[in-house]
Design goal:
single chain, alpha/beta, Alpha-Beta Plaits, TIM Barrel, disordered N terminus
Length: about 450
């Protein structure tokens, strides 16, 4: 492969536009073209050929800039399959994907492998966003068919990002960057999504970058603060603990909702820094409460895949002086599903030190009963979506009744989230629910307001 670098600098010019998008020019040495322009595993074009093709199209259409489209495809869930079945199986899947891409692209289209499980395609006769979406939809449909691994079949999906020349850029790097931005937005929205680069997408990504930069600074300066919502024993009306909820108001951005900045911190890889800062502040604040009150704190999905999480949590509460028995960690089923084995190791290490564990948003995941069996939870939190409709929706009432009965049999405590009025509280009491939280009792409060709240209860 070292000989690739010795290919003539003008090799690209020896290949006509039709050859770039289809068959290799017979005038060039086949072995040199194969080395310089072909992905050795899949037989598709490689990154160099992709770049040459795009630059050729841009040059040809400079005087009359007819649009063309660039697409990037990133496979969803390929790494777990590769890890589970081995690299040979992964290579087999990549080859099958290459065959499918080659067969389903419109006339004149070029498919390329960028590396790993990422592919790209050039669509010289795709002129509009609607046309690009149709191509993506067709490719998505083809990719969804099972992949044959001999004794088993697996399924995959893909995330797509498209950019249209010249709006998406008038150089190779610019238009690929636009397609990559669209791909990032697709992955942010979930699996199997298609995004076409536009002004709206560009503005959204620009704002995300602004928020990221401001958030990193806010974490460093301690400007992201924990607020505390009381958790109440609804049989007695007494406060038994508080859940810490992140709040951030930036001088320039204003109030930034946690459902915006927390997922962003997860996506950009610094949620652990955010969590550590919040936990230290929250644990410090909890020292000013009565000793019998517990602190409930949320762990993210990324933290449950990080083997350092347990030590980090324990080091923080030990440095502050908060007893582990006063800390209750909330995790969701979705967070567990990223890496169940690692999540189990993390929570078991924390439980061994006295930290309690709560399953959050119960009833909204995919395998609640299995998680209750596999993990030693202390509490279950019923999702607010059931509580909000308990008074006028019989199915919600029956679901809550069943959850409470099941938890009683498993010796698990139950907390109802999102209690907003007396009627909901009354029904929960009748169903046997012991505790809850919501606006009926209080919104989340800052540290000083929480202390005043506790003093007023005396």
């Amino acid at each position: 492969m070292a000989r690739v670098a010795t290919a003539p600098a003008n090799l690209a010019t020896e290949i006509s536009n039709e050859d770039q998008l289809g068959e290799v020019n017979s005038g060039a040495t086949p072995s040199m073209v194969e080395l310089a322009y072909t992905d050795s595993l899949t037989g598709l074009a490689n990154r160099r050929r992709l770049e040459d093709t795009i630059e050729r199209l841009i040059a040809e259409r400079a005087d009359d800039p007819a649009p063309f489209a660039i697409g990037i495809l990133d496979l969803d869930g390929f790494k777990p399959i590769n890890d589970l079945f081995g690299h040979a199986a992964g290579d087999t899947i990549l080859k099958q994907i290459a065959q499918r891409l080659s067969s389903c692209l419109p006339k004149g289209g070029l498919a390329a492998r960028l590396g790993g499980d990422e592919f790209a395609f050039v669509l010289p006769y795709t002129f509009t966003e609607s046309d690009a979406y149709d191509v993506g939809d067709a490719v998505r449909d083809v990719l969804s068919a099972p992949y044959d691994l001999g004794e088993r079949f697996v399924r995959l999906s893909g995330s797509f990002g498209f950019a249209i020349h010249p709006f998406g850029g008038d150089t190779y790097s610019d238009i690929m960057g636009s397609a990559d931005t669209a791909l990032y937005r697709s992955k942010k929205r979930g699996r199997n999504q298609i995004t076409i680069y536009s002004n709206a997408v560009a503005d959204e990504m620009k704002r995300a970058t602004q928020i990221e930069q401001a958030l990193r600074q806010a974490i460093t300066s301690g400007d992201v603060k924990p607020h505390f919502q009381p958790i109440v024993d609804i049989t007695t009306g007494c406060v038994i603990g508080f859940e810490a909820l992140a709040r951030w108001t930036d001088k320039e951005l204003g109030f930034v909702p946690p459902d915006v900045f927390i997922p962003l911190a997860e996506e950009r890889g610094f949620v652990a820094l955010l969590s550590d800062s919040l936990l230290k502040q929250a644990a410090t604040a909890a020292l000013s409460w009565q000793d019998e009150l517990f602190l409930s704190f949320n762990l993210s999905s990324m933290q449950l895949m990080d083997p350092t999480t347990a030590d980090s949590v324990l080091n923080i509460i030990n440095s502050v002086g908060l007893p582990p028995e006063r800390l209750e960690l909330e995790i969701t089923e979705t967070a567990i599903m990223g890496d169940p084995e690692m999540a189990f190791e993390i929570v078991e290490k924390l439980r061994a030190e006295g930290v309690r564990l709560s399953l959050d948003d119960f009833g909204t995941g995919q395998s609640s009963l299995g998680r209750l069996r596999d993990f030693n939870f202390d509490k279950v939190k019923i999702d607010r979506s059931f509580i909000s409709s308990i008074e006028d929706d019989r199915p919600s009432e029956h679901i809550i009744r069943a959850i409470i009965a099941m938890c009683a049999g498993l010796d698990l405590k139950v907390i109802a989230e999102g209690i907003e009025d007396d009627g909901q509280e009354k029904m929960l009491l009748e169903l046997g629910c012991q505790s809850g939280q919501g606006y009926l009792y209080s919104k989340a409060m800052d540290t000083h307001t929480t202390l005043r709240f506790l003093k007023d209860l005396k």
